[in-house]
Amino acid sequence: MLALIPQMFSKPAQSKSTSSSTSYGDIDAYIEEQMQRLNIPGVSLAIVEDDQIVHLRGFGQARPGGETPTPQTPFFIGSLTKSMTALAVMQLVEAGKIEMDAPVQRYLPWFRVADPQASARITVRHLLNQTSSLPTSSGEIQMADFDDSSNATERQARALSTLMLTRPVGSAFEYSNANYNLLGLIIEAASGESYADYIQKHIFTPLEMSHSYTSLSVAKQNGLAMGHRYWFAIPFVAPNTPVPNGSLPSGQIISCSEDVAHYMIALLNGGRYGNAQILSEEGIAEMHRGVADDSVMGISLGQYGMGWFVDESGKTKLVWHSGTTPDFGAFIALLPEQKKGLVLLFNANHHWFTPVLSDFGAGAAALLAGDQPNPIRFVGVIPWMLRGLLFIPLIQIVGVAATLRLLRRWHHEPERRPSGGRLWRRYILLPLIPNLLIASTLIPMLGKTRGYLMLYMPDYSWIALLCGSFAGIWMFLRTGLIIRTTRQKVTTNFAPRIQGS
Predict the structure, then answer these.
(1) What are the boundaries of each domain within the chain?
(2) Any idea which fold 4-378 has?
(3) Half-sphere exposure for 273 (CA within 13 Å, toward CB)
(4) What global pTM score does this model have?
């Protein structure tokens, strides 16, 4: 269920068409309203039309007690990074250094998964379109690997050599950061430059993205916003959240709303920004062509291109992506037919907030398109689900107290003790059900994605560890106490008889 939540509900809510035009003031008001509802500390907004930045605005606070975010305030942009990685690959394709349908092993001869034939079939295009069959979990494991050495990405990729694929290569879409981390290594192999240097030289510099970074330390020196992690739907400042440097190509670039606006202008204008041409018009169109169907349990959620989801807002083509890190969020949307785009950067996040923030961004994009946004799905449900986690330890405390009270009563009033089927049905098997449910929350914490869960869902993770463990122990302890108490012999104290002489 945890894996399905962001996939099932990450598709932006489609908008209802309206003939009335929408001003930027309406978008600003919408953002302020949603910020208050979702308890988001700070947001940075940029809107472009044609080849111009037409609106820049900051909301809330960039850090506790601090200033409002400016257009130059850096934020982690999460998976918005993927479109930049895809752009870098397409640049190298047009330069003749990469072939999209070439196997990954042409550029990374050491690349392996457990199946040698599958290893040889995975191509660059499969990675770009998220159809390599590398599972979502493989990327989540990498996102919780905080190796800061220069070869972290390659070491993590080599660790895929024991990975068993669950479906044939190219058979279906499955979102995984591992795909784009591999693309980062291919960029390095084909260009002869480090990923960070390539992005700086071929994307940041020509697009005048002067407040964009691949280094956390440099971003902090230049006013990086303070991230927040949600605990039970309440944002808490997280100044020392670790960064998985090995996942830089899939989701760790840092940028600001003004710089992303430059990027959007190039994407909406055939790859041109000012005098710089970063990619051909045909190359941009290829990136924005949805080719991989994203569906869960037969429900279509749109299509995936090369670092982009492709959908519709009303009757308008919508090219979009969300970004998620433990303490930052982002949303970018392009309306190519109207030559409009917007980006929203958030300084708080949680795994379960991913679909909510995506709908938040889609609503702003709908307003930009001249439509009215649908209500944000689960805007009330997910925060209350997170708050509801606090009821689990409360339920356990009440359950323990009730059991101890029952045992005392049976001890003092043995005639009330149940027996036979009634004992097992009502007092042993039935109470096992809630304890089993609570104990089951511990199961994800025992797998390889435990680090990811601890990072992206700290509240759920600690509830699962503490309450799940206690529930598992209490099931056996409670059953033993019930059986022992009901089997205790009834003892009666008789007064001694006094013999007369």
Answers:
(1) 4-378, 389-487
(2) Beta-lactamase (3.40.710)
(3) 22
(4) 0.91
